Amino acid sequence: MAKFKILLDSTSDFPKEQMESWDVDIVPLYLIWSDGTSEKDDTRDFEELKKFYEKLKNAMELPKSSQPTVEDWKAKYEEVKQQGYDGILVITISSNMSGTFNSASLAAQEVDIPVKVIDSRQASTAISPMARFARELFNQGADLETTAQELQKAMAEKRFGAFFYVSDFSFLVKGGRVSKFTGFVGSMLKIRVAIYINDEGEMVPFGKARGFKAALDEVLKKSEEQGFKPGDTVDIYLVSCDNMEELKEIEKVVKGIYNVKNVYYTPTGKVISTHVGPGQAGYGIERY
Asked: Which of 190, 177, 165 is nearest to 275 (CA)?
């Protein structure tokens, strides 16, 4: 059977416990601080990320994120080829949030191993279940082209989604990832703002709430509007930026609504953390 590698970028917030079993590797984005120093978004270790969250809370100015270069992708493709793989499936953050899809696609034209690059039109934990879906097809013997086509079909059927809230909306505004929608400017204060990713692959704020329960209610309502109905069989990918306490509560509530097959916990990586800010919590979801 042919052997295929799945590559994601670091904004996927992929659960590190699944990297080996799903044969996934990560290509990191970068953060560039105001003093000119840069660092890679290259750790999935919770303790290391806790230190980064503290750094973020105390930062006078937020760092800017930067996509992996064409050379970064090319080097990873060559490495995978040397490991004996027959092809590579790449799933990137939405092209409306980052140039990562473009750099991955350009690099694919410069190597002599088959590479298929998919624009997820999503971010964070909506991407992890796409990798799981693809790995299952590969394990069943599907080739690279068929797997890519089936994944895009599943995306069109809205089988994957990400729904969350932030505790400090100013991080998203400063990072340029959402517009200052009418009625949300006041949310710079400690009001929680619910966010989802629309069909164009953009983060959209849709509800404000003053407490955890109200914020979660907004998120669950939007999740249902987007086709994830109570009683559906799903996998849940719980994600937070330094807010594990509320994440555990979200798990309990979600398990009371859906028929949950698997639950995965994961912290936000450095780039996503910079945009959503400490206190963010939510979930990625895959409908079977």
From this structure: 177
Sign of the CA dihedral 40, 43, 44, 50? negative
Contact assessment for residue 212 and residue 246, using Cβ atoms and an 8 Å cutoff: yes
Rounded to the nearest 10°, the torsion over CA 188, 186, 191, 207 is -120
Q: How far is Cα 234 from Cα 231, in angstroms, rounded to an integer?
A: 9
CA distance 77 to 71: 10
The pTM (predicted TM-score) of the whole model is 0.93
Three-state DSSP state, 7: strand
**Could you give the CA distance from residue 20 to residue 13 in angstroms, rounded to a whole number?**
15
**Helix or strand holding residue 105 (H, E):** helix 100-108
The dihedral built from the CA positions of residue 227, 230, 235 and 236, taken in this order, carries a sign that is positive
CB 130 within 8 A of CB 136: no
Tell me the per-residue pLDDT of 72-114, one tens digit each, with 9 for 90 and over. 999 999 999 999 999 999 999 999 999 999 999 999 999 999 9
At 3-39, the pLDDT tens digits run 999 999 999 999 999 999 999 999 999 999 999 999 9
Q: Of 72, 73, 123, 132, which Cα lies nearest the Cα of 95?
A: 123
91 vs 89: CA distance, rounded Å: 7
State which amino acid sits at residue 105: S
In sequence order, which residues have a C-beta less than 8 Å from that of residue 256 and are 6 or more positions away? none
Which domains are delineated in the chain? 4-30+66-156 (3.40.50.10170), 160-287 (3.30.1180.10)
H/E/C letters for each residue in 170-211? HHHHHCCCCCCCCCCHHHHCCCEEEEEECCCCCEEEEEEECC
Residue 44's closest CA among 72, 79, 71, 19? 19
